[in-house]
Structures
1.
Amino acid sequence: METSDHIAKLRVIGGDVALDFVNTVDGEPGGETEFDHLRDYGDLVAWGRRVGLLSEGSARRLLQEAEEQPSEAEATYARTLLLRDALYEIFGAVARKEHPPEHSLELLRREECAVLARARLVPKGEGYAWEWPDDGDVGRVLSPVVHAAVELLTSGPLDRVKACAGCHWLFVDESKNRSRRWCTMEVCGTNEKVRRYLARRAAGRG
């Protein structure tokens, strides 16, 4: 399965798959976005493969099923955008130490109820975990994203969820002293250093 360049090169820095899902758009979801990495259902499947939610075989089956069920695939893509907007509102608010909007929480609650209704509990390590079978449902690619978002919201380290000071992508700050400000120092951290340097030069010339 070939992966589009914009998916293959997409940085995966969220520290949680729900945040990586939100970070598939550059800019504010629902607003004037600079670039959306999920342009269609195929991109969603490619992203699922990219972040390890789907095996190669599962991804191929989903794409085949999408060809056979184009209206369902289109509906899943529309659902993808709504879910991403809701998760941005929820975890963006969390990063700002605010209460998430009730309508976004309700959308996530409904999604979790729906995906758990299709899930099954399977042995994993010394315990059990939810699993979504390859059952012809083209929307199952979103199931682990929804469940990860609920787990992060209900039992995750919410005090470590932050927004990058440069690009506003969301991430879990896993630094020891919780001082991380950038999605990655190599990108936004470096860009900020350059901006500060140029500002100092301009001020000196003035």
Note: The longest strand covers residues 120-124.
2.
Amino acid sequence: MPDQLVSPVINQQLLDKLLKEGTVKIFPPESVIIEEHDYIKNVPIVLSGSIKVFKLDEDGKELLLYYIKPGESCVMSFLGAACNGTSKIRAVVEEQAEVLILPVYKAIDLIRDNPAWLEFIFQLYNRRFEELLAVVNAVVFQNVDDRLWDLLKTKVKMLNTMELNVTHQQVADELGTAREVVSRLLKQLERNNKIQLSRNKIKVLTTV
């Protein structure tokens, strides 16, 4: 586990307190951290790796909402638990993640006892709200090709690699569109020398 997390919303003193209250676990890729419609018993805080959060429609198609990166948590899970409701989202590990599992009752108690935790929740809520607005803006106003290119650049930055181990179907799921559409647009990006395609891999050649 890293000695210190670099994040604008969490500090080391708060992290030390959370580590005493929760349990650290390692999750491989594709592990489901939060399932839609389940009652939430724990709040996940990512220490390393990343988790993607998305919404499923009635046909089972995904819409990517945001990523949980090191030093962040899923504010949607916290709010759902605080209201005794069920999860409205699904959270799945993108790359192997080290996650601090904080029981909901301890997360709620910390609001009363630790002002830094309350500030963390508010800052995180504000960030997620801005990200969700960006998703709505992209779906309503952006073309699928622009959304695809933005997604690839986001993955490169988040995973810190230009070579993405991802299938066309996975990309299509995250964009909430058909695989055939994504394959066609990826071929166009390859013709424009922005990416290089191979089996289950997309190599991004430029982020400009």
Note: The first strand starts at residue 23 and ends at 27.
3.
Amino acid sequence: MSQNYLFTSESVSLGHPDKVADQISDTILDYCLEHDPKSRVACETMVTTDYACVSGEITTKANLTRAVVDSLVRKTIREIGYTDPSIGFAADTCQVDCRLHSQSGDISVGVDNGGAGDQGMMFGFACEETKSLMPLPISLAHRLVENHSRLRESGELNFVRPDAKSQVTVEYKPDGSPCRIHTVVLSTQHDSSVVEERNGQKYFSDKARQEILNKLIIPTLKAERPDLIDGKEKFYIVPVGETGKTYAPDVILVHINPTGIFLEGGPHGDCGLTGRKIIVDTYGGRGRHGGGAFSGKDPTKVDRSAAYMCRYIAKNLVKAGLAGQCEVQLSYAIGYPDPINIWVSTFGTAKNGLTDEKIVALIRAHFKLTPKGIIETLNLRRPIYKESARNGHFGREMENFTWEKTDQAAALRKAAGLG
């Protein structure tokens, strides 16, 4: 590109209806793996007004009775923060419907022999924009909703409710490096204590907007990218309905509840489904997506495990200094163990004379890419997945997120002749 450009990514909080569904599905998965590491799980959840339906195919030795499922669902909803029946969805009052049955024997035949649990293509991405080697817009968007939940739970923002969405627009230079934060959007469900009336219309109060800016947005941006928030820029809360205005280049635009009010939310305001936030779960649109969702699936499903492996590979390649950014694709056929193909793009950032083809050869030499090899490498038959179902599957240095490790970087660097 010959001029600066903008790129936007969004995230959603743990109380967003789709994320509620994801966490319930992964809670069921974790329970099964805890009691039977070889469980085969494909769990789907739907939530709406005072109702949660858990369905899918599960083959496990775990004691997965209706009473157990009911207890797991209610516990998850309670931990998320839905405890008030007056808002239309609560742990103690919602109806829980269990519609689970065992996995198809036709699928089991291929998986039992070490094959992939389904066909499909999976992608992984890494770049040098952040310490976590994630794109900056999605990284900031995740931290905003993560901190939103923390401030809600601590009582520092006592008027917000669990449902929230964030969106961050970053301005990039022609060389692809971020130069400033352009716009932040934060929509949060809230209670009636911060509602004011103007001209007969109800609005989220200006005082509450300022509090969210001061307690959540500014501290989050400063903590993540102090080099881009140096105190000279101005934050401008865009009034509801303001359009067509020209802003100075040192202004960071902030939209807080831009519809004016957000009283009705959560599963009561919008039906939630497992697997509907696949771009939020990955790279915010920066890297490609194969189309398969993650939550509720055990690691024999390459939709999940191979996508984790692609991230692991891409991150190690960038950490090794082989490229400034890297995207990896693996594809599989159901019941067949080896990947059908391995594809890499470094977008012209490969170092020291390396080509994308040479990097593919390095991947083949250093990573086990059968479903069994992926599961063993990343130690995926453990109850570690509920936490991944909120605040993004990638970009957090957590002990159980083995796909975020860069333990192959030194070996890759040596093999590539970079020292």
Note: Residues 332 and 339 are 5 Å apart (CA to CA).
4.
Amino acid sequence: MKLSVIGLAVLLPGTLLAQKKTDFSIKGKVGNINAPAMAYLSYRQGSQSISDSTKITNGKFAFKGSIEEPIQATLLFNYTGGGTNGKNVQRKTIYLEPGKMKIDGKDSLSTANVSGKINDDYQKLRIALKPTTDQMTAFMADYNAMPPEKQKDTAVRSVLDKKYNAIMEEQKTAYLSFIKSHNDNVVSLDALKRFGGSTPEYDVVAPLFKSFSENLKNSAAGKEYATMLTGLQNTAVGAMAPEFTLNDTLGNPVRLSSYRGKYVLVDFWASWCGPCRAENPNVVKSYAKFHDKGFDILGVSLDDETSKKNWLNAIRHDKLTWQQVSDLKGWDNEVAKLYVIKAIPQNVLLDPSGKIIAKNLRAEELEKKLSQLFPL
């Protein structure tokens, strides 16, 4: 068994001593698989990424380790033993629990049973989600089978968007039902993250989190989510936009407060983000139409040092004539963290006093909102 730990932060010795860990062990049996097949286990624990591997002999494999609390992990089989990528790979999401765990499968990892209360609850969630999972699989198969020109057709996309959104709403209903009936389980916390999506709304997710047990809320994962909620609350519609300063393309510092007196759109994007680049023409159109009336934009890029040249080229190519800033840290962008940006494109619209009056206005929605603020 080969174990590797990649530390993403340096911990003080005192911190290490203060962390209480419990042992786990996994014994598995899936069919009669043999060499060169390998099993791989990967998970994150705090600031560390942990990966482990072992040979599969007569379908049997085993792992052991220690965890601070139950945590989601990925178990992977490669039937040709060639690492974690390739055509002969099967993946299964499991939860590592303290104590002894068993994994039993007749002939496939994907259908194998995993022992443990948390894994039992996770299986209940998977069963509840299966109808929408099957619908989404069929939807994507139909979409991918379409000719490219049909995929781009406006009328076709309108129909597809409605179907996709209907599936997602049904899926959210399943998540919500599970969350409400399981308030003391890390699976529920992970389900809440999926329920909230990439642009969670504080007023929607906060009450659900508050309904969780104190044990769950006080777990490391619970505390991390609580911190995220604080960020959401601080950047919700009606709140004063948190101040920040970032350098522009020439290295000059730009303060958000310098835009006071104007309606300003703080636009989060990146040169490598396809949906962002597709949305840029709509933003350019709104800027041209309303800039002279008192509307401005501050672009915040999630590019990094390696893509700085692409960022500058994208600004020119997409004709983004407003101010652009970035700390060139990619997803570690300090302002993105401050505003709880988990996906892009996203934006925040501020009034002249600096108060947030709208979020994530796209295409016609942005122009419609600005038309209300600046009647013709």
Note: The longest strand covers residues 22-30.
